[in-house]
Design goal:
The complex is a heterodimer of chains A (about 180) and B (about 270).
Chain A (H helix, E strand, L loop, with lengths): L2 H22 L8 H12 L4 H16 L6 H20 L4 H26 L8 H24 L20 H10 L1
Chain B lengths: L1 H6 L1 H18 L6 H35 L2 H39 L7 E11 L7 E4 L12 E4 L2 E9 L4 E5 L6 E6 L4 E7 L5 E4 L12 E4 L11 E10 L6 E7 L8 E7 L2
Antiparallel strand pairs in B: 1-2, 1-12, 2-5, 3-4, 3-12, 4-5, 6-7, 6-9, 7-8, 8-11, 9-10, 10-11
The chains are: A mainly alpha (about 180), B alpha+beta (about 270).
């Protein structure tokens, strides 16, 4: 793993999230590139790297997007910890599991944001806002996530060698396994 | 002991970072030295990248639109010429009225109105997935921007400055769930407080159930506001219903500004 490259990708993700994504959003729905990057790192590494990256990227996103300091850091930390904790139990070598996991983690991320803002800052967001936002974003993440993971797979090698935990959205993994055994 | 720490290092680091995040989040109510310095430090590093990225995106969009919009430009040009003629005539009449108004104010010995200065500003970043409605502007304390300065556009009011860095500042938009501004129903002169909901509309609070407020009424800035000059358009009343307590009205206001497409505005400063 190249740490300099990782930091560069992290900064690029935050800059793209706050400058490019608002321009490219489809019908008002935009993906969260920083969230997808944090999930990717947490799935690839069981070490504390995922936690530090979640915290650092969260703070960077808070400042870069004009949000409240600590808001994204808190939410991303929770999501990253859960992803690291559950990775062995839930992640299978297929696209469907990735899609489901991204959908569920987006629901959780949005719920945590809603909960913290309403509890700590008494923002008074109506509860109906959460499923509407979370579902549209979750679907977008489920579509984009696997492609992004596939593009980033060279950035961090999976620490326990199970390279297909974050697999390609392309050919089914059992075919690629057959290919590896064959060669 | 070190073995114990090593074994539980992930949980310990997780707890430590959660506590730091919580402290930072709670401290937003009254930002202290640490959170302000941290924010300014991070902004100092990230803002140049954002400015460069925004400049590239704007350049690319302008190049793309230039190639296929000649016809549209001709039509726009003709339309703008007509508008300029109309507005010039109206401006002349208003200048005459302003002179007359000033003479009358002097004769009546009214207090002199505070003059306002405008600082043109561009949006360089926003987080489209955030629950909060905030954007980052390309002006900071180096341009004498201060926390609490009002922000407007030619259409109406936009919000106010929430945080200031050296070369950038955060603007809390009117729609933000923590935003609040004094408003006035233009037709019936009813005062209230406009609060953001974070859901794309505003609520006009503290209006009694027997007050004269109708759907379609324009809401403008109140003379009670210290951030904005009075009479600037905020929005139109979209719905009026009795509140749950029966004493007040539940009023929804549709803001006049399209916040999603907003890319530049003016920062208001009171001239000394």
């Amino acid at each position: 793993m190249n740490r300099v490259l990782l930091v560069l990708v992290a900064v690029l993700a935050v800059v793209a999230q706050t400058t490019l994504v608002p321009v490219l959003n489809v019908a008002g729905v935009a993906p969260d590139l920083v969230f997808l990057l944090v999930i990717f790192i947490a799935l690839r590494r069981q070490t504390t790297l995922g936690l530090w990256m979640a915290f650092g990227l969260g703070l960077l996103q808070d400042v870069a997007g004009g949000g409240l300091l600590g808001q994204n850091a808190l939410v991303l930390l929770g999501v990253a910890y859960l992803a690291m904790y559950l990775r062995r139990k839930f992640f299978q070598e297929n696209l469907v599991s990735q899609v489901l996991v991204l959908l569920l983690f987006t629901l959780l991320q949005q719920f945590l944001s809603f909960f913290w803002l309403n509890t700590l800052l008494e923002t008074g967001f109506p509860f109906s806002l959460w499923p509407r936002r979370a579902l549209t974003m979750g679907i977008m993440h489920a579509v984009l996530g696997p492609f992004l993971f596939w593009g980033l797979r060279g950035l961090i090698k999976d620490e326990d060698g199970a390279r297909n935990i974050v697999s390609s959205p392309g050919p089914p993994s059992h075919l690629s396994r057959l290919g590896r055994h064959g060669s | 002991m070190p073995e114990f720490l090593w074994k539980w290092r992930r949980e310990l680091i997780f707890s430590l970072l959660i506590i730091i995040s919580l402290v930072l989040l709670v401290s937003q109510r009254q930002p202290g030295f640490f959170s302000l310095t941290l924010r300014q430090g991070v902004a100092f590093v990230i803002v140049p990248f954002q400015k460069a990225s925004t400049a590239i995106i704007k350049r690319s969009r302008s190049l793309l639109s230039r190639t296929h919009s000649l016809k549209k430009l001709r039509w726009q040009n003709a339309d703008l010429k007509r508008k300029v003629e109309k507005l010039s005539l109206r401006n002349m009449m208003l200048q005459e009225q302003a002179r007359e108004n000033e003479t009358l104010r002097q004769e009546l010995d009214y207090q002199k109105r505070t003059p306002w200065a405008f600082l043109p500003t561009e949006i360089i970043a926003r987080d489209p997935v955030s629950w909060l409605e905030r954007v980052v502007a390309d002006r900071g304390s180096a341009d004498d921007v201060e926390v609490g300065d009002g922000v407007i556009s030619p259409l109406g009011i936009v919000g106010r400055i929430q945080n200031v860095g050296l070369y950038s500042s955060t603007v809390m938009l009117l729609l933000d769930a923590q935003s609040s501004v004094a408003g006035l129903v233009e037709r019936s002169r009813i005062n209230g407080t406009l609060k953001g909901t974070g859901a794309g509309y505003l609520k006009l609070k503290y209006v009694a159930s027997d007050d004269d407020v109708r759907v379609g009424d324009r809401v403008v800035t109140s003379p009670l506001s210290s951030l904005f000059p009075p009479g600037l358009l905020i929005g139109e009343i979209a719905s009026v219903a009795p509140a749950d307590d029966g004493l007040m009205l539940d009023i929804q206001v549709k803001p006049v500004i399209q916040f999603k497409t907003l890319d530049r505005f003016l920062i208001l400063r009171k001239e000394d």
